[in-house]
Amino acid sequence: MAVPIAAPPLLYLDRYRNEGTRTYSRHASYTEAEERYRPTSTQETFDLDAAEMPTDRMNVYTANPPSGLSAHYLRNEKVLFLTHPQVMARCADDPYVTRTRDLGTACDPVPVSPTSSTRTLLVHEGDPAHAVKVHFPFRVSRYQRRMRDEVVHQAVNVSKELEEAVPDLDGDFAFLREVIGVTHQDLEPGAARGENWGFLVREMEPYPRRGRTGHLVPGFALYGKDVFDPGARPLLLDLIAARDRVGVVLEKVLFPIIRHWVSAFLRLGYILEPHGQNVLLELGPDGDIVRIVHRDLSLGIDMRRRRDAGLPDGDLNAYNRMQTGDFASIAYDKFMGGHFFQRVVETLHDDDASVCAEDLQGACREEFARLFPEYRSYLPETVRYFSEKRDQFGKPLFRDTGQAPVWR
Fold first, then answer.
1. pTM for the full predicted model
2. Tally of helices (H runs) and strands (E runs) in the chain
3. Smaller CB count within 10 Å for the chain: N or C?
């Protein structure tokens, strides 16, 4: 039987049930965020700088935002603009920091709490509940976490297109919509890449709506240790107590994520990144896993698949367009399979040595092939991952690991 969930709320799980999960690369634990702004900080909240900016001097993108958020951020001839305090303190010479100070009218600061993502912050005011994903040009793991205009614009467009496509996706597909984006207009339109930046507004209620939202659990919290109680039993084991563990994990967690990945790829060319941070499990009142919810829509987009599906570019811009299957392999084989699924399987095995990884991997390979028999036309034969070499903008290049996939 299911165990009525007594897990802490999402914000606690996001911040403090993540211990021991950043082991997937030598960069994973690296951060340039000041201690007080880190997810694991014991400081509950901090304040974002806020200013009203003239709408006609900014870029504003929307994807069917609820009226409460529109009213809060889009204020007739003004827009509310939010900036991380570490940016304001350390990037005084950034031309867009200067522009914010010159054009903006200061407002009361906005109290927020970090989620598992340093730059994605839960807002403690405004209705409905929401988070903001802000510009943070400091390295966290492999990347500086910039929110450049094309990134913001693309996330809003992807959210809009996903919302429209939901009836054609897997029946229990759900995601957190990115409903508003605000960025500075580009001060150097002739540059190789626009560095004008801003922020996104993300709903916290999963879409499609299902009445009252159930309890949300980030994927890594299934196996992550509690910062304040490192000996606590893995949450995964409580959720599947006294059941056919392998069957429940396959049917409630792994198979739905595979279905979602395949349906988003085939229908839209979208490459979901369902690692432990981007996947949320929605639980019913009795502790059952009722659906999987995806967050973070800065996705790779396979343009080959979009052409094959007869999809126009629509409002999509040039950000993260892919013409090969390298990144699809990274997202599926490494982010999902290696970084998330493997940790789930290891947690089961550590509690019950009779659980065999190959049993779950084999079942997932069969499910993937059943759903996506033509996958070899889009994904490479061997697993791809990030190289230590970087491009001109500091992004890691891809490399062939030579390894055979185990999850497809």
1. 0.94
2. 12, 21
3. N
